[in-house]
Amino acid sequence: MKDSIQTDQAPQAIGPYSQAIKAGGFIFASGQIPTDPATGQFVVGGIAEQTEQVLKNLSAVLQAGGSSLDHVVKTTVFLADMNEFTQMNEVYGKFFAKQPPARATVEAARLPRDARVEIEAIAFVGE
Fold first, then answer.
1. pLDDT band at residue 69, thresholds of 50, 70 and 90?
2. Pairs from 40-49 (Cβ < 8 Å, separation ≥ 24)
3. 3 three-state secondary structure
4. Which of 5, 49, 92, 115 meets the CB 3.0–4.6 Å disulfide criterion with 20?
5. Which domain holds residue 33?
6. pLDDT band at 127, cuts 50/70/90?
């Protein structure tokens, strides 16, 4: 059994997929990009600002499913340019200060809407 998670506190899906799926006590969150859900536009700024918005979006999706960033066990970070890793990592570390999840970070040739960063996550449902 699986349930689709949907919230207007994060950007709407731009294709045939769910913001997240809840199944087996876990939430599998689709990749989030730096879209401000209020405007539908990317946040202004560089990789730091984009990473912050991505993680805010991810947090909103997880909260809608009964979880949080504190319950994330694995993330995958996609960067348009691995040279921006240090700046992304600095912001990422603020959101995952204690017991950071397992993570993979890869450089992607191109991300949706030409984002600089996209992050997907797996989290357990809150206790």
1. very high
2. 40/11, 42/113, 42/115, 46/84, 46/87, 46/116, 47/79, 47/84, 47/87, 47/88, 47/116, 47/117, 48/87, 48/88, 48/90, 48/91
3. strand
4. 5
5. 2-124
6. low
pLDDT of 52 > 90? The answer is yes
Burial class for 25, CB neighbours closer than 10 Å (0-12, 13-18, 19+): exposed
Beta carbons of 125 and 67 less than 8 angstroms apart? yes
**Angle between the 85-95 and 47-64 helix axes, to the nearest 10 degrees?**
40
Q: Please report the sign of the dihedral spanned by the C-alpha atoms of residue 40, residue 37, residue 119, residue 16.
A: negative
- Please state the domain count of the chain: 1
The whole-number pLDDT of residue 14 equals 83
Q: Please compute the mean of the pLDDT values over residues 48-57 and round it to a whole number.
A: 98
Mean pLDDT for all residues in the chain = 96
